[in-house]
């Protein structure tokens, strides 16, 4: 296995765990706590690293089929959804707008769920056929 692939897989699994802990933590607390924001920002870093490593492995964005294009588009939408939530919640928390973190926490599971769908889809569709 190429080292880019290995780093990408490990980074993706770390992002999965951190996104899950951060998103569900914010949702259950009805607001993004500092711990949740730290987990989400760290997950975004690992997600970006995984995306770069997978891009290096595959030679760039794979838009060769409609399924690959849809996977890529949905993955980017999920990534940017998590980024927007995390940035808004961080801004709201730093400016003392607690009600805004409460509103954001209601919506965090939408990009998380999309991210999970893309993760499962990518895992199943890219497993080696043996």
What does this structure look like?
- The chain is mostly helical.
- It has one domain (3-125).
- The chain contains five helices and no strands.
- It is elongated, with a radius of gyration of 16 Å.
- The model has no long low-confidence stretch (mean pLDDT 90).
Low-confidence stretches: none
Percent of residues in β-strands: under 5%
**Helix coverage percent:** over 70%
Question: What is the typical, i.e. mean, pLDDT?
Answer: 90
Overall SS class: mainly alpha
Written as H for each helix and E for each strand, in order along the chain, the element string is: HHHHH
* Tally of distinct domains: 1
Using the CA coordinates, give the radius of gyration. 16 Å
Shape verdict:
elongated
Main sheet makeup: none
Distance between the termini: 16 Å
Please report the total strand number as a whole number.
Answer: 0
In short:
This protein has helices at 3-29, 34-58, 66-94, 98-107, 109-125. With 130 residues, it is mainly alpha-helical. α1 packs antiparallel against α5 (109-125) and α3 (66-94) runs antiparallel to α5 (109-125).
Write the layout of secondary structure elements.
Blueprint (H helix, E strand, L loop, with lengths): L2 H27 L4 H25 L7 H29 L3 H10 L1 H17 L5
Helix pairs in contact: 1-2, 1-4, 1-5, 2-3, 3-4, 3-5
Throw out a few tags for this protein:
5 helices, mainly alpha, 130 residues, single chain
């Amino acid at each position: 296995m190429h080292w880019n692939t290995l780093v990408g897989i490990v980074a993706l699994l770390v992002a999965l765990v951190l996104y899950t802990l951060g998103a569900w933590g914010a949702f259950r607390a009805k607001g993004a706590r500092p711990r949740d924001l730290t987990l989400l920002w760290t997950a975004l870093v690992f997600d970006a690293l995984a995306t770069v490593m997978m891009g290096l492995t595959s030679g760039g964005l794979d838009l060769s089929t409609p399924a690959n294009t849809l996977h890529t588009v949905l993955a980017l939408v999920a990534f940017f959804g998590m980024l927007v939530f995390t940035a808004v919640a961080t801004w709201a928390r730093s400016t003392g707008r607690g009600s805004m973190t409460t509103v954001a926490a209601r919506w965090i599971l939408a990009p998380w769920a999309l991210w999970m769908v893309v993760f499962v889809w990518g895992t199943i569709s890219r497993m080696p056929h043996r």
